[in-house]
Amino acid sequence: MAAIKEISINLALRMKILSNIGKYFLMLSVVFTRPEKMKIFRRRLFQEVQNIGINSIPIVALLSTFMGGVIALQTAANMTSPLLPEYTIGYITRSSTILEFSPTIISLILAGKIGSNVASEIGTMRVTEQIDALEIMGVNSLNYLVLPKIIGAILFFPIMLIFSIGLSLIGGWLSLLMANLSNTETYIFGLRSFFFTGDIGYALVKSIVFGFVIVTVSSFYGYYTKGGALDVGKSSTQAVVISSVVILICNFFLTQMMLL
Amino acid sequence: MIEVVNVNKSFASNQVLDNVSTKFETGKVNMIIGQSGQGKSVLAKCIVGLHEVDSGSVLYDGRDFSAMENHDRREIRKEIGMLFQGSALFDSMTVEQNVMFPLSMFTKMTKKEMQHRADFCLDRVNLLGKNKLLPAECSGGMQKRIAIARAISMKPKYLFCDEPNSGLDPMTSIVIDNLIREITYEFYITTVVISHDMNSVIEIGDNIIFIYKGQNWWSGDKKSIIQTENPEINNFVYASEFMKDIKASMQKKV
Ligand SMILES: Nc1ncnc2c1ncn2[C@@H]1O[C@H](COP(=O)(O)OP(=O)(O)OP(=O)(O)O)[C@@H](O)[C@H]1O
Ligand SMILES: [Mg+2]
Question: Which residue in A109, A138, A178, A179 has the fewest CB atoms around it within 10 Å?
Fold first, then answer.
């Protein structure tokens, strides 16, 4: 009996996940239609670039600088073998920053910030009938609310990536200087050695995908909120958790596809 | 004219609307009345398509709304103004921006023309001068009135008001009732008002339907509602001592 119950719960869960995935793609098909009025779309886009982008800069800056510093220190501290040249520090700091830290870790952090913000904004509009009010006027509410967020994220995430890489490398450099573990010349030499431009492209693709994931998944959970203020809180938690998981899964496949 | 034909609607096992049919005439104030939780708001939301009906159909001047795709529904919805029970103002926008929103979305008006129209609508609900406030800075009754201004800004052909005067004082209530009646007659539109308030029912109700247990239990006009012997209606209409007194005094006159 218990086994049957477990199987049926399992099945129900799988059905739920499947139907949610279906609903998500249906949502996207409604989002990607022509905006009613370009002028309004531009205004909304501007708002969202501010909201999703500009407002995230301080946290990205802070994190990138400190993480860059820590990566450099860790590498330096672990380089006990005299066979490894000192410029390895710069090389490793650069690689880990470009390949994983700036695109993935920063996106995970932003999933928390942007995800909860987007889901609670749209969720509140849902439970206070603001979305119904939009629909009644004849506005395509998904297109109006979500498309500017997606475009804003796609525009902003690559900029954020470059910014984060830059600050992280600077953070690494500063920390090495302050701890007296290396010097500027060697560090920069390390940064420039074995450089492969494709890595930047790889990181850019990742950041765009992750930005898209964060915004669409969070909009999905916000838009389909049912109930009241309590449920908005739940949706926003779900938005953060699910977008983080989806980012990790995408990261795995993207890495496999592009690096191997 | 809006026709509602055999509409059924359930939420899970809870059947809220049970085979409701009715007609809302153009140029008249059509009222939906009934006790709390009997399905009035759900009926209104089914009519405008915010809830999908389980069966039955809704026709706007002969156009079968319930059979349409979302895209075509939007065209009809541009002719609808709706006041929600909870106001549903956009809380990131100012009062004025709320009223101008549908204009900026669907008309080619210049900023100045929109401003002019917004002032006109706000004036009609006695809110001129509050243009720059945010909805959160307004009282509940003010929010209601802003929502009415927004609902009429596009000069709708169909106007839905879910409890336009709940939460308003008697004076403002009367102002709002008169406003609804005026625009209905002036622009010859189809107005549907949901209300509990017997005052407004008697004041502005041209056609009245009484929803009870999800059914169109009774329909008629304001004269017949006072005189009907239907026990459910009498319980509803004469729930207060005040209305009982009125009935008694009317019967004395007769
Ligand atoms: N979205 C929903 N999901 C599930 N049940 C609902 C939903 N909306 C309304 N109901 C149910 O439908 C019934 C009728 O609700 P409705 O809001 O239409 O009442 P009402 O007549 O407008 O009452 P009031 O005068 O208090 O506003 C209630 O039993 C309510 O629980
Ligand atoms: Mg109601």
Answer: A178
Ligand nearest to the CA of B210: 1
- Domain carrying residue B83: 2-226
B174 in a domain, yes or no? yes
ipTM given for this complex: 0.89
Give the burial string for B50-72 (b: 16+ CB within 10 Å, else e): bbebeebebbbeeeebbebeeee
Residue A130 CA, ligand 1 centroid: distance in Å: 18
Residue B237 resides in a domain? no
In a domain, B212, yes or no: yes
Q: Is B91 helix (H, G, I), strand (E, B) or coil?
A: coil
Residue B105 to residue A139, Cβ atoms within 8 A: yes
Question: Which residues are B5's β-sheet partners?
Answer: B57
Residues from chain B contacting residue A139 (CB–CB below 8 Å)? 74, 105
Pocket of ligand 1 (CB under 6 A): B 11, 16, 34, 36-42, 85
What is the number of domains present in chain B? 1
CB contact under 8 A, B90 and A130: yes
Select from A214, A224, A219 the least CA-distant residue to A244: A214
CATH of the domain at B80: 3.40.50.300
Q: Taking the model in full, what pTM does it have?
A: 0.89
Mean pLDDT of successive 10-residue stretches along chain A, which has 260 residues: 76 86 94 91 94 92 94 85 78 88 93 96 95 93 96 95 93 88 81 82 94 97 94 96 96 85
Which residue's entry shows tokens 């622009």?
A: B187
Give the integer Cα–Cα distance in Å for B79 and B100: 16
CB A119 within 8 A of CB A239: yes
Is residue B22 in a domain?
A: yes
